Amino acid sequence: MNPCFETATRLARAIRSGRLSSVEVTEAHLQRIARVNGPINAIVLVDREGAMKAARAADRALKAYKAGKKGATLGPLHGVPITIKEAFDIAGLPTTSSHPPLKDNIAKADASIVARLRAAGAVILGKTNVPELCADFQTDSPLFGTTKNAWDARRTAGGSTGGGAVAVAARLSPLELGSDIGGSVRNPAHFNGIFSLKPTEWRVPSHGHVPDLPGMTRTVRYMGTFGPLARSVDDLETALRIIAGPDGHEAEAPPVPLGPTPKLSAKGLRIAVLTSNPLVTVSADTGAVVETTARLLTKAGAKVKHVSPQALDWQQAWDDWSDLFQYLIRALQPLGERERFFGRDQSKDPSTRSVARASRLDLGQFFAVLDRRDQLIRRCEAFLDDYDAWLMPVMPDVAFIRQPQSQPLSIDGVDHPYFFAGTSYNFLANLTGQPSIVLPCGLSREGLPIGLQLVGKRWGEAKLLGIAKALEKLLPPCPVPPDYKD
Question: Which structural domain, as residue segments, surrounds residue 73?
């Protein structure tokens, strides 16, 4: 068995049973990183010494556990090597979020979820690449360079968890932890043919994550969340159960239990399907994968219906997501920096219009956005009273060839503003705070992966995981990019 081609949960079982040691598994991943990582630039900091030290400690702990030593315990990821998005603090290592002013910033302590993963037995291999301040769906870092898509080096890796998605897809790591305020764990999973989970807003603590800059007032308080990227739904569930729950740093985070994941089959599931939305029409390849997946579910006995919430104003919803995001990131920006956007409300680019609106920091308008958001949450939650999950695209198309942000994104020959198109399917679950799971569901005519997302009710991750497992059984195994097969 090649440890690099196993999932995290399978590796945990193999280590616990003694079929593999943590040292063997960790060394295999480090050797593969040394051989494969250079051209794709997925992992930007390899902590070989720290990883091997942790692996040796894990093997000693296993021996103590099997010997019945008092107090010896094993966590669910005991001895399993993983990677972490560069924007999370790992004690003693740099955390820059690819922001040049932070190039010398060394974390004093682990982020809350990093500490939880360590406590669960995970061995941290290193940190993966991100775009500056996690603000793009291409991973082009001014500090670490560009990460390349695992399927086609000319194309975007996705972002902002682009390095992590490529590491998992190229079998450099079985599990990655990322963050998502506009698709940042979901679009890289789609672009690279892997799985990911965006939990319910406030399900997972943010303490120790940049872009809230060290020592500054925390302003990113809405819509952002943190979740795993992996090669199976089991791995998503294992990771979520480790990292979920309040940590005492955020007053907004309620102690809502996850509950057990139900064992479900596709038969009888009520699945709403969205093939394309009014903002950006998906590519023919993407639409075909949606329809093929819907037919798979129907054939397996699910009740599938092409339907969306009544009276959902997609453009207003996108504007509210974008405005709220802009309010959060510009809240501390000096007036002189914001003034240059005043008067650009009539731009043809929806993103520019949003920046113009939010740059005035109008408190009344800010609360109006929150009020409309509450209404939308109620509408989407009520919609999912009648359906178990909502299946939809992750992005309008496959991974695009890397390009400047100033250029439009072309979907089957139709140009759309860059950020508008790139967030046109992911934004909604951030605005509503609902959980979303991405599964690799097919390939384009060019052989590039296409993922779809299942969206569920707030705090309903356990049920959503059960539905995702039922769909996973109908799909081919998680694909391996041609250049990275064993």
Answer: 3-270+461-484
